[in-house]
Amino acid sequence: MVPNQTTWIVGKSGSGKSTIGNLILKSYNVQRGFITLDGKPLESLDTEWLRENVTLVQQHSVLFNDTVFQNIVLGKTDTEVSIQQATEALLLAGGGDLINSSNDIWSRMAGVRGLNLSDGQRQKVRTIKPSSGEY
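Predicted structure:
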């Protein structure tokens, strides 16, 4: 892998793509072997830093039964992220149709697993890198 470039992991169903992504984000621990990033053991890297710098886009979007705004900012408060910053992030993710579809998109409930949104809208909300601070 080359630094500062987007890397894709592709393969057949069941080949371990999601497992690799979840291991890199420390969603669960490596049982055998090891993973290094830039030659550093994964265990030595700060989990918060990893999650701010690595984006995992799952095949199925995962959204919480909360507002679209809260799903985008993922636990940050409205004092940390403004509506304007969230709007810019959603526009960068191609979510202009979502913004235009509702007068108050930010308080709209995404629903359980995001079922109040279309598949495309769910994907756009989840592709935003919420922890990067670059809204």
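Summary: Strands lie at 36-37, 40-41.
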